[in-house]
From TrEMBL:
Keyword entries, A-Z: 2Fe-2S, Disulfide bond, Iron, Iron-sulfur, Membrane, Metal-binding, Oxidoreductase, Transmembrane, Transmembrane helix
Domain Rieske: start-end pairs: 93-189
Cofactor(s) required, per the database record: [2Fe-2S] cluster
Protein's name in the database: Ubiquinol-cytochrome C reductase iron-sulfur subunit
Signal peptide limits: none
Class of enzymatic activity (EC top level): oxidoreductase
């Protein structure tokens, strides 16, 4: 074999190796593009929470669809406050007549499936700030008439222990109650309605 042919074969082989390497490197972004993005992974599937350890009067916060969701275990004293006629007279929508703020299966007054547990998206309905949980009675900054609930520090909106908005504040509606259901006495699932059914092996999409 002549020296020219030998050099030609090495040149072709080297080009093939470089080309294969380039193909491999260029395929990596393509393979990566097949994996679900962080945005897709955080798209908002149902969230299950163990509520058995929440104490009476205690509230916890969980994330659902990148939003804070409150789970409040209301005490007997909190429920008594909600029954107060004096409180209801101060509320803009005491009977939860704005239907977009809670699923149809949620009772209007306590705004919860079970009286003891209140679940709501923790965003003020004014401009989306996060209200603070204020269970203290008649604090100096909220006045003697304050019986507990939620206070938004951004613009002063107030809500009771059922997320019902007070009159005379910037927030236009009650706090949003998300779809949820109980899987057991100790497990709550947020993002799924109790009316959800399985049709032909797939979710019906209710809730």
């Amino acid at each position: 074999m002549s020296e020219i042919n030998i050099k030609r074969r090495y040149l072709v082989f080297g080009s093939a190796v470089i080309g294969a390497g380039g193909l491999l490197m260029s395929s990596i972004p393509f393979v990566e593009s097949l994996n679900p993005s962080a945005k897709a992974l955080s798209g908002g599937g149902p969230v299950q929470i163990d509520i058995s350890k929440i104490q009476s009067g205690q509230q916890i916060t969980v994330a659902w669809r990148q939003k804070p969701v409150w789970i409040l275990r209301r005490s007997a004293e909190m429920l008594k406050v909600l029954d107060s006629t004096g409180l209801k007279q101060k509320l803009r929508d005491p009977k939860s007549e704005v239907k977009t703020q809670q699923p149809d299966y949620i009772p209007a007054e306590y705004r919860s499936i079970k009286d003891e547990f209140f679940i709501a998206v923790g965003l003020c309905t004014h401009l989306g700030c996060i209200p603070t949980f204020r269970a203290d009675i008649a604090p100096d900054d909220l006045g003697e008439s304050w019986q507990g609930g939620y206070y938004c520090p951004c613009h002063g909106s107030k809500y009771d222990f059922a997320g019902r908005v007070f009159k005379g504040v910037p927030a236009p509606t009650n706090l949003l109650v998300p779809p949820y259901r109980y899987l057991s006495d100790s497990t709550l699932e947020i993002g799924v309605s109790p009316l959800k059914k399985i049709l032909n092996g797939s979710d019906s999409g209710l809730g």
